[in-house]
Structure formats: structure tokens, C-alpha cells
Amino acid sequence: AYELTAERCPYPLHLGVTEAGTERMGIIKSAIGIGSLLQRGIGDTIRVSLTADPVREVPAGFDILRALDLAPDGPQLVSCPTCGRTRIDLIRIAGEVEERLRSSGCRKAIKVAVMGCAVNGPGEAREADIGIAGGDGVGLIFRKGEILRRVPEAELVDELMKEIAQL
């Protein structure tokens, strides 16, 4: 319906998924519904509606835009799935980096990678502007796949945030 309307109507189109559901499923449904249209160049405004605290709707909308490279500002976090090569508490560290980026108010349009191993991490995340990769008690900080330095695992997130501040 939106495709036909976009072809025939000169007016701005608003996108949203009505009754999307609880926070988790609502974000998934909204990302698919809104994102698939935006990817085809359809839509001018969006609204994410969740059965959750309404404050969660705006960040979800920005996350959808960032995932499509349509948001002009704000960091995008990428991280690898855990596997047998993971040498750090990747789930905790990725969550901490995500929270620190959010709470810092960082508006830089950067891609930040959190990778589980130092062997493949920097290469797999070479498109990231900045990132970290875990090791056995020591991690790497890298930029565009190039290793900058090694730091103790306990200091990895703090050092990453310092690097981000300097970008």
C-alpha cells in the first residue's frame, strides 16, 4: 500500500507499525516494517510505538535509522557473536560499551566494534572507526583494523572511551 501511495502521492509519508507489541517484539517488528520501506526510499517520518515506557521509543527509532545509515549522528555499535575463540566476557563488555556510549551523550557518527578475540577481531571489524578485541587478560585497541596498542583487560573499556573522545 505504501509503495502505491508513494508513487501517486506528492505528500510526505509517515511510517509506523501500530500495535507492534512489547519492547522486544515491537522493536523487531518496527525495524522490519519501517526499515524495509526506508531502504527503498519510501517514508519521510517514523514513529516507533511500543507497549513499554514511551521514553524507549525515540532511541529505538534512532537505532533503526542508524542501522540503515540514515541517522546523521550517533555511534553505531557492532560486536561479534561469542564463539570458542572469545577470550573476554564479551556480553558484559559489549553491554558496558553500549551503556557508556549512551550515557556519555556521544553524537559522533562513528562505528565502534567490540570483538571477542585478538586473532580475528581487528580484521573482521576493519570497517569500524575504533574498536577493542579481547585476549587472555590483555586486549587490543584498534582503529580501522590497525592495532593501536595493547591494554590490560580491566582498562579496556575506559581506554576505548578515551580514544572515542579524541576522534
UniProtKB/TrEMBL annotation:
Residues 1-61 form the IspG TIM-barrel domain. Its cofactor is [4Fe-4S] cluster. It comes from Candidatus Gallacutalibacter pullicola. This is Flavodoxin-dependent (E)-4-hydroxy-3-methylbut-2-enyl-diphosphate synthase. Gene3D superfamilies: Dihydropteroate synthase-like (3.20.20.20), Sulfite Reductase Hemoprotein, domain 1 (3.30.413.10). Pfam families: GcpE, GcpE_C. GO terms for molecular function: 4 iron, 4 sulfur cluster binding; 4-hydroxy-3-methylbut-2-en-1-yl diphosphate synthase activity (ferredoxin); metal ion binding. It comes from the Bacteria. Keywords: 4Fe-4S, Iron, Iron-sulfur, Isoprene biosynthesis, Metal-binding, Oxidoreductase. One of its GO terms (biological process) is isopentenyl diphosphate biosynthetic process, methylerythritol 4-phosphate pathway. The keyword Metal-binding applies. Residues 76-165 form the IspG C-terminal domain. The lineage of its organism: Bacteria, Bacillati, Bacillota, Clostridia, Eubacteriales. InterPro entries: Dihydropteroate_synth-like_sf (IPR011005), IspG_bac-typ (IPR004588), IspG_C (IPR058579), IspG_TIM (IPR058578), NO2/SO3_Rdtase_4Fe4S_sf (IPR045854).
